[in-house]
Write a structure and sequence with these properties.
Blueprint lengths: L5 H5 L6 E3 L8 E4 L16 E5 L5 E5 L15 E6 L5 E6 L1
Antiparallel strand pairs: 1-2, 3-4, 5-6
Length: 95
């Protein structure tokens, strides 16, 4: 998930974006979602993790902007990506 405070998430200058390549100079593809599909065993390349966007397209996200998923209301909650019936990425939250 994105490792930002609510104030940081509201600030456009601090927006986390998906990129097409693992490179600071690569153009942004789109804003990143709050919860991002990244394999647990993924290895960053040039400071970026490979991820999937909601259309199941490969993207890259800065490693310094991520943290493992956690829920403030349920510390035992887990999050796993899944493909919805419409073929898009979704998340399954278990307790």
């Amino acid at each position: 998930m994105i490792n930002q405070t609510l104030d940081q998430m509201r600030d456009p200058a601090q927006a986390v974006v998906f990129k097409g390549k693992p490179d600071d100079a690569a153009p942004a593809i789109s804003p990143a979602s709050t919860v991002i599909a990244v394999k647990d065993d993924a290895t960053p390349i040039n400071g970026y993790y490979p991820a999937l966007n909601f259309g199941l397209k490969p993207v890259w996200v800065s490693a310094k902007t991520l943290a493992p998923y956690k829920s403030a209301s349920d510390p035992t909650a887990q999050c796993q990506p899944g493909v919805k019936a419409d073929g898009h990425l979704g998340f399954i939250f278990t307790h």
